[in-house]
Each structure stands twice: as C-alpha cells, then as structure tokens.
Recover the amino acids of this structure.
C-alpha cells in the first residue's frame, strides 16, 4: 500500500453520511404486477379510476323495495308486500321493483331498478300473500351506493406508500393490476480478497485461506434493506479478473460494495479502478470500526468500501449504507431498532475515536434489559451472532459503569435478547439439550470463565465441570457425568495406558486451555499420578474447545489429546479412559424465576435422552 | 343454503384457535443454498464442522516472532531482530522463525512455524540491522489461534434459528453452503365467488361484478406470515371448474383458503367438496366478524374458509390463520404488534359477540396515541387502509368512553399512525398537495363531517369549502379557490346556461351529498337565483365524491351534474360556470405544533404549483 492511500484526516461520521447521501443510487421507477408488489413502494399517487362498488349494492340478505312502502311498519302491524322476483350476487336483476312490491335479494347483489332500500331477512317473515315486514326503513338503508367505498377520481394511495396486504387489497378493488413502484437499487458485491474462498469450496489452511464471510453477509443485508444484491464471482488471486468484475459491477449496478481485503494486491486493484474510472470522496471515518471505509464512484456507479472484519463490515453497512439503500428504494425509515438497557458490567475504553461497541443483550428476572460488551477479538465471526447490536461510545468516554444506562442500536428490529444466557464449559450434552430452548445463547468459554462472569452477575446459568469450586452451590439445575481420558489414534499405536505415559519422551500431546474444567480435572489426575506437567510434551499446547484435541490427533499432529470418550467415538479414534467428571448446570441465584431459565430446566429434564446418544455419558 | 350449514352454536375464539392448531400444515424440511436462506428457519442444530480460523492467524499487521525474544523491550531499550522473510494473507509461509528472528506479517496471514506472537507495526521501527521492537509481548499476542473463533464440534446455531445476515455470516465462515431449513407451508388460495373478476379484467356493473379483493390480499398476507401462496385461476361461475380447482389445491397444498362468497352456488361447491373428501371441524366463531369462518380438511389438506368482506377476511386471517402458518414455517412469534392508546371518541356497541373493532391510529401533539373506530359499513375496501388494526371489545361492553385506554392489535408490526389526519371536503388540489407529506391520511367525507369530527377533537386538520361556519377560525393554514358549476356533455347539447335551467322539466341532474361544502355553495346559489330545489329533477339524487357527478354525465345517465371545472376538463366534458368557492385547510388548534401538521404546512406552501395544473383553480 502506498502513502497516497494513508489519509491522515479521518472524516466525521456526519461527513460520511453526507458523502454516501451525495451518491445517486436511486434507480428508475418501474411497473410490476400487483401480485408481485408486496413490499414495494408506490412511485406515484394512485387515484381511483373506477367507482367501488360500481353499482348500488345490497349489503344484507333480505328484500329490496321502496322505503316509503315500509313507512309505519312495526312488529305489531307489519306491512305485507308481494314478492315479484329474486336477484342474486353476480347477476343482472331481471325485474324492476314497482310501488308496493318487493324482490328477494342477496348480499352483494345489484339493487333492482325502482328499489331504494333493503330490509334484512331477519326483520321479515313469509306469509300467504307475500312477505311481511315488521320494520320501517329509510332510503339507502342496507344499500351501499355506487362509489360509496371509493369513487372514481378520489385519491386512493399516495406516493411513497409501502404496499402491504392492505394496500394490495385496495388496489385489487380498484382493478389495478400493474403498479407503478420505486425501482429496487441494484447493489453489486465484489469479493476482493485473494485469500477468500466461497462457502462450499475447500480451504487450504496452510496457505491461510478462509471462507468469504462478507459477500453473503453483505448481500443478505442489502436485501434486508430493500436492495437487490448481485454477487460477482470470486476472482481469487486473478487480479485482472478481479478488475474486470469491478468494472462490470460498476456498469451494471447502482452501487458497488467491496469489503476490505487484507491483501495489498487486491486493495491496489480497487484503488486503480477507482482512480481510472471514478473518484474517491472519502477515505476513513473517525469511528471505530470505520477507519477503512471508502466512499466514492466507480464508473457510473456509486462505490462504498467496507471494512474487512465481518462485524465491522456489517456495522458500517448498517450505519452508513443501509439508510441510503432504503432511501433509494423509497422504503419508509425502518422502525426505531434500539433498546435501552443497563450495563451489566463495567467496560473501559482507550479514548480517541467514537466507538461502536458490539453488545449483547440479556434480561434479568424482572424483564429489564441488561447490556454487555462482546469483544471476541478482531475478526471473530461468532461476534456476528453473539452480539445483538452496537452501543455508540463517545470518543471522550473512559468507561461505562456497571448499571449505567445505554442505548443499543439493534442489528435488526426483530432482534430479541436470548431466552437464556449460559456461560461455561464446552459440553456436547449441554449443547444438544439447548435444542429444546427457543433462542438460547451459550458462550462455551470454559468453566473458569463461567464462574468469573457469574461473580459479575452476568449469565443466567453456568455450565461447570472439574473439581467443585469452594463457593459453588451444590444444588445444580442438572448434572451428569462424562468419561474423559486420552484420545489417541485408532488402535492406540503408541500403546498409551494412562496419564503417566504422557511423560514419555516420544509422545506428543495437546492440552485444553486453563479455562476448561476438564483441564482442571486433568491437572488433578496428573498430580495424583505424580506426573510432573513439565515433562508432558505439549502440556502448554492448548486448545479451547472439547473436540479440538481429538481433531489434532485425527490429523496426525499429535499422539494424544485430552478429551472425551464421546469425541473419540464420534471421530472413530482410540480412547484411553482416565476417569469421569461431573458436569453441573448452576443457576444464577438472581435469575432462577426467569422464564428462559425455567424453559432450560424443562429442557434439561430430557437430558437422559440426550446423553443416551453420547458414549461415556451417564447420570 | 340448506339447514345443515346453519350451525346454531358458534365456537369460542379459543376453540377456533385449537381447531386451526389441530390441522397439520407443517411441510417437510428442505435444504436451500446459503445464498437463498435469508428469512428461513434452521430445521436442525448446526455444529461447526471446521475450525475458524483454520490456522493460527495474525490479527494485526506487524512482525511475527517468538515472544520470549521481546522480553524486557521498551521504548528506551528496544530489542532489534533481523527480518528473515515476509508472509502475506493468503499465502503459505516460506520461512520458519528461529530464535532471535522476525518475519513481517500481514493481518490474516498464517503464523510462520516457530513464531508465537505478533508485534503490531506501530510498536516497531526499521533500523539498519533489522527491526526494533519497543514493547514486550506474550505468547499469543495479536494472534488468533486456530479454532479460537469457533472450533470444530462446537454448537454454532440451534434449530429454530431464523437466518438473518448475521447467521448467514457465521454459516459462511463455517463453509456451510447448503442449509437445512424448515419447509415453507404452501397455501392455496381459491377464489369461489362467481361475481368476482380478477384485477385487470373488465367489470360488468349491471351484472353486479366486482373485483376479487381477497385473493391477492390473502395471498400477500400468507407471504407476510412466511407461507408460499398459490393462487388458483378464478373459475367464475363455472362450478365444475371451481370444484376441480379446490380438489387440485387440496392435493397440492398444505392449507387451502377460500373466502366467503355471497353466491349460494359457490358456497355449495365448497361444502360438497369438504363433505366428500374431508371434514368440517368448526363452523362459525363467536366473534364479530368471525361468524362465517370454517375450519376443516379437504382431502389431505387443511382448510379454512374466511369471511367474504376484505377487512373481515384479513382480520380473521391474522387472528387465527397467520399464527398457524408462522408456526408451521418455524418463524419465531412475530414481535408484539400492539399499541396502547386512548379512545379519541366515544363508541357504543350492541352487546352480544366479542367484536374486533377496526381502528385508526392518530397521535396528538404530545405524541400520545389516539384510537378511533373505523366503520365504513360492511364490505368497504377502503377500511383496509383507513384502519391500522383492531381493538378487541368484550361481548358485554356497552361502550368505550372517550379517553378510555385500549389496546390495538396492529395489522402489521410496521404500521405507524399517519403523519397527519385530514378530514373534510373532497378536493383534488388538497389530494395532490398531500403527495408532499410522508404517510398522510385523508378522509374525504365532506366539509360537514370535517367540522363535526373537529368538534369531537379527532382530525389534525379539516378541509372545508362552502359558506363559512359561524365558529370557523378565519386563519386557515392555506386556502385557494375553485370554480364550480354544472358539468354537462361536451357541447352542452341541452343549452344549459345556469342553475335556473335545472328546473326545466326535461333536464336531469345529479347532486352532491349534504356533507359536501360544494353542495352548500350550490344550495346558496339556488336560493340566490330563486330556484325551488324541489323543481330540480335529481336534486335528491346525490353522490359523495367530487368527480362522481361528472362521471354520471359522461356515462349519459344525466344531463348535468354539480361539479368543478377541473373535473369537466379532466373528463373532456362541457362546463357551465356558476361561481367560485374557497377551499380552506383549518388546523385543529390542539395540534398546530404537531410534526405532521408542520410537514403539511410546508407541503401546502407549494399549493400554487399544484393548482396551476387544475383548470379553474386560483389563490
């Protein structure tokens, strides 16, 4: 990257909004069939072209007659009129109604000539010489006059109206089958990272390949905002092809999006095309994570470059780009997708730039919203689903205090706090039991992290394994046991019989991180066996999740890994049993009455069925 | 209709919910490409199949090295290490990092063998014999370990998760390109009214034909609820074809919907098919407007018959059917689409059945929500867009008092109160000026209705024409004049010269309703001219909207109609000018500071441009 791209003055968020707004991404209006118009926005006013109803229409089943013929009628002294005909809905009346006559009529039928009112059938009875009417009616009673609903020439719907089933109903009544609507902005999504591979493709981990997360994420967000996303084929490290894609996208779309590549060569392609065909209006916004944002034009198209990390890309998209797409599509401003909540924990900041802090939501027992920061480190894709929105933190804010009130801009209006927030040990039985809870969140950060966060008052429940903590409540919501030991290649070629064999010079091992309860169980077993951890080759080599050591054994990286019988069985590996440990689900005492916790308790009632499928598990 | 269909015992709303819930409309799960999965719902848990990242990954631009080589480094005493290579994102490291060495590394690149940490470039500077590091780092610093984001075997997303851009991002990272999702229930919409004509078709008014409103409305509502609507071709009065459509829909769909036809023959077809192939579980619900609701089975499909009037059909659909479709699609319960408000006016009821009262929303100057009943009479399609939701009123409630608090179940979660509610004279200039306001509502019920409703405190503004009311505020938000007179056939064949000629025996006339300000202006002109209204043939023949008399002249029904020069010009008719009347837009004094009223005032600033297009208009 050369210096020309290192703008030192970052734009303010307001300037960035203005720069994006200055891009013209509004497509021409179009006409769509009514049947396909749901969610579209009227481009112009629609006045009624016809009367609805188009004729004077009976609005009850009964008898059409001249109202004056019923004057004076009541139950004691009904008026009797001869019936001279019948008229049903959907047919032309065959008779006129003369003075002193009546005609049977159905709801929706055309009023026969001569009649000016309908007496509902409930207020009549048949008599020998006709129909008896026990009530008087006035002209127009139980009749909907032509045009009474909507008359030709009246304003029906205004420009900018979003078409829901209701408006579609009114347009149907008016006989409108082609609807003039705002165009849908076409947004090209060009993938520029040469290390990226579309989902479904094979990754070469040694070459640092990763799946392209932003293309599908941004495309889905474009569609959520009312645009039509066009994904251009991934060009890999073919820079000529990448450049061709960019130029093609610019020619075909109202707006082109890329997301920051970490590849300097790919970045250079983007800059070259912008320089040659368009202009750069803005480089970098003084908001974390907006520093890498680009705004400009490529050819005839508007252009925005998003940051490369998925949460950053989506945040910047939602903050700056989505409003412009909605506006171009004529979509009414989205409903206010914010919630107020109290910080569940304290969060400190380095001062400097305004920061959009990814935040998770949670409700306490009283249903109040709690907010906690989600910071899983740069580029974590799990933050996409573990955060619910962002909190804008001023540049001069040092910290947010626990209990402080904050506003969370939700990732979408239908985001809801999780039913239950579980933090702790990564356990496959618990993970499966959660299938019985609607909308749970499970941060499998390890037992130690679960305890630590519980001391902060954050989670609803903690999943714990390993030795009991000194202050651990003994009455768990549920508990079960899992058999653990050493996962080894199939057939156990090294002939490992127990933890003592890990100290052998020629055995390589992979451990779990110290946050894991299983790690604590393992350490205790090493101590019991009198094995010096320093003699275990790979003791310091740690992985976070329950199945990871077994995977490293499977791939041939190591001879043995700390793990569960269930993992060895799943992956078809050998297993040297060492012991059993208890997994406990502990409730936050402040949340035992929370709905989601009760729902979890019900789901955990079925844990026996879950663990029946997991080798080495028991209750 | 025979007696067997006249069930005397209506089901309770709870029984109706249970009957619909007992129908099995859940389709089989399916697999869709990730790119097309937005809005779908996961059918099963997705566990991570791979580690993300798949390799130890630099999370900053900088230098990869062994952390222990930086111990003790600080700004005063930096450590200098020789650089032995470079590794970019997307490439396999070509070098190992030995003790006392460093390698330049890009964000996202694979950590080279031997290195265990990255020092960000900001904490380094180039020196003659290598790179100087002015900070110490620990192993793992600025490195995202393989699987640190999500590890193979971990729970990624649970069953029942709705796929938004965020989940699509996580699935992308996991390389999942085919997603197991809940099926979309297929809902057949069969049109059974033989008087119905699909929008776009020509109506025969004399035969009582109307456009089919419910098919497209219900289809759109099905899609809003997460179903796939299949519209079956309209069979008109071909009952064999109608029966064939019903049977075909039952064979092809999870659920078949019809909406009540007023045609007895069409109703008989529905009953016959249900009786021969399925069963009727429920006929009629004790809720207004649910009396005609049917629940049962047709062949292998579930079946619900909706009422025939559009607002009733949509209300019953939303109340009983939409939840079942959402449930079958696995869609999370829609957000709570209700608002609380105060009744703006008193509303009385006949006791009897629970009633779902269509209601309009409004905000007062303080932003509080006001609620008013929308009752335009049976079958009005304009109620679809003039109501915002329904208020459930108990069977034993006599009345709702003005100011009483009520809960409105919105027609959809994104329904918002209109920016401004205008009631009064039907005027084309005002109708056009509203195009400049986002989301207005205009009830063109006539000047008299506007004044009456203003006395109740309902509208934000009143549009008035005709003679000034005694208590009318003279300071209007805007006012203009419109030329009125007698609309006659082109060339004025009857040679009408003024209102006096209307008293001629051979001249037929059509008037406006007494609610119209123009009618009052006309009455005053008749009086001035000394014309006895009783001698005007058609004086009592009234229509509601401004263009309707001209349309009756155009169709040859009458010789002259009360109307505007603008209407005559639009329809290419003759016009006999009589006078000018003022149209005034009057603010509700309680709402002058309301945002929507201010927006209307700005739009009315441009009224001159609007009236320049309307012959006979002036300011």
């Amino acid at each position: 990257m050369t210096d020309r791209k290192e703008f030192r003055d970052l734009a303010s968020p307001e300037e960035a909004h203005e720069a994006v707004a200055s891009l013209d991404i509004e497509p021409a209006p179009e006409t769509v069939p009514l049947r396909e118009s749901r969610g579209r926005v009227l481009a112009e006013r629609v006045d009624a072209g016809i009367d609805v109803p188009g004729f004077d229409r009976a609005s009850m089943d009964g008898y059409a007659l001249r109202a004056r013929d019923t004057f004076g009628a009541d139950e004691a002294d009904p008026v009797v009129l001869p019936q001279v005909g019948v008229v049903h809905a959907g047919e032309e009346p065959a008779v006129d109604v003369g003075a002193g006559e009546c005609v049977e009529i159905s709801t929706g039928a055309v009023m026969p000539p001569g009649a000016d009112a309908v007496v509902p059938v409930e207020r009549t009875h048949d008599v020998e010489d006709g129909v008896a009417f026990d009530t008087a009616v006035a002209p127009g009673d139980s009749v909907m006059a032509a045009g009474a609903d909507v008359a030709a020439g009246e304003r029906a719907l205004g420009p900018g109206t979003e078409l829901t089933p209701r408006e579609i109903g009114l347009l149907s009544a008016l006989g409108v089958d082609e609807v003039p609507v705002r165009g849908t902005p076409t947004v090209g999504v060009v993938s520029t990272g040469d290390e990226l591979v579309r989902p479904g493709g094979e990754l070469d981990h040694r070459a640092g390949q990763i799946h392209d997360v932003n293309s599908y994420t941004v495309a889905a967000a474009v569609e959520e905002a009312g645009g039509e996303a066009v994904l251009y084929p991934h060009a890999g490290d073919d820079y000529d092809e990448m450049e061709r894609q960019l130029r093609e996208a610019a020619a075909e779309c109202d707006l082109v999006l890329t997301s920051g590549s970490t590849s300097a060569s790919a970045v250079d392609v983007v800059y070259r095309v912008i320089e040659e065909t368009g202009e750069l209006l803005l480089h970098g916004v003084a908001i974390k994570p907006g520093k890498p944002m680009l705004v400009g034009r490529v050819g005839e198209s508007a252009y925005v470059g998003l940051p490369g990390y998925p949460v950053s890309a989506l945040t910047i998209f939602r903050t700056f780009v989505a409003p412009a797409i909605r506006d171009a599509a004529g979509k009414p401003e989205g409903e206010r997708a914010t919630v107020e909540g109290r910080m569940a924990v304290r969060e400190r900041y380095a001062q400097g730039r305004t920061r959009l802090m990814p935040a998770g939501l949670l409700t306490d027992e009283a249903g109040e919203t709690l907010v906690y920061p989600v910071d899983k480190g740069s580029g974590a894709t799990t933050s996409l689903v573990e955060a619910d929105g962002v909190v804008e933190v001023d540049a001069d804010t040092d910290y947010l205090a626990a209990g402080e009130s904050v506003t969370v801009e939700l990732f979408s209006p239908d985001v809801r706090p999780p039913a239950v927030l579980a933090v702790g040990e990564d356990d496959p039985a618990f993970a499966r039991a959660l299938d019985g809870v609607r909308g749970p969140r499970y941060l499998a950060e390890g037992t130690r992290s679960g305890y630590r966060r519980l001391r902060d008052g954050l989670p609803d429940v903690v999943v714990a394994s390993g030795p009991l903590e000194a202050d651990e409540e003994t009455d768990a919501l549920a508990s079960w046991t899992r058999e653990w030991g050493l996962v080894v290649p199939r057939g156990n070629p090294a002939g490992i019989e127990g933890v003592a064999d890990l100290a052998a010079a020629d055995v390589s091992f992979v451990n779990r991180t110290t946050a894991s309860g299983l790690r604590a169980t393992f350490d205790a077993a090493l101590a019991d066996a009198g094995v010096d951890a320093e003699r275990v080759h790979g003791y310091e080599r740690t992985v976070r999740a329950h199945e990871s050591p077994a995977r490293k054994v499977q791939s041939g990286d190591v001879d043995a890994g700390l793990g569960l019988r269930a993992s060895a069985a799943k992956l078809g590996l050998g297993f040297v049993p060492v012991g059993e440990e208890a997994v406990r689900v502990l409730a936050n005492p402040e949340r035992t009455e929370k709905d989601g916790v009760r729902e979890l308790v019900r789901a955990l009632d079925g844990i026996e069925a879950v663990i029946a499928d997991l080798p080495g598990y028991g209750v």
About this structure: The CA atoms of residues 283 and 294 of chain A lie 5 Å apart. Chain A has a mean pLDDT of 91. Chain A touches chain B through 133 residues (CB under 8 Å).
